[in-house]
Design brief:
Radius of gyration: 16 Å
Distance between the termini: 37 Å
Largest sheet: 4 strands, antiparallel
Shape: globular
Structural class: alpha+beta
Length: 130
């Protein structure tokens, strides 16, 4: 199957708050109340999960993509868009004593060239980090 025809399976939100937002959106609602709540509480979202935490990194309104630089994996992970909404997110299950730093890079350009050290170095120089 060619890459363009491949479709990832739908993801199930780890975060209860994101699951509730997904239901609201599925019923025809919007994300305004969610973003108002986030503005009050701050980000990332931190929710209890047994003996750990679910930490959800958020970005609002990127056009193409958002990349998490740092964070729990320190792997420059891509955030996922929640349907067609203005919500971009990535959740992780972490221990309660985690300490980390991160930045978000929205709308990272797709650069021609090969992967590998030189490709990543080129990406890192071109990414607008916020």
């Amino acid at each position: 199957m060619p890459p363009g025809a491949q479709v990832a399976p739908p993801s199930v939100p780890r975060s209860p708050r994101i699951a509730a937002l997904a239901e609201t959106l599925a019923r025809g609602g919007d994300s305004r109340a969610f973003w108002a709540e986030v503005a009050q509480q701050g980000t990332p979202l931190v929710e209890p999960d047994g003996d750990g935490l679910i930490v959800t990194f958020l970005y609002r309104g990127a056009a193409q993509n958002v990349r998490l630089v740092g964070g729990p994996s320190n792997d420059h992970d891509w955030l996922e868009r929640l349907g067609t909404s203005d919500v971009w997110l990535r959740s992780y299950r972490v221990g309660p004593d985690i300490r980390l730093s991160y930045r978000l890079a929205p709308d990272v350009p797709a650069l021609p060239g090969r992967r590998g050290r030189s490709g990543w170095r080129c990406w890192r120089r071109s990414a607008p980090i916020r």
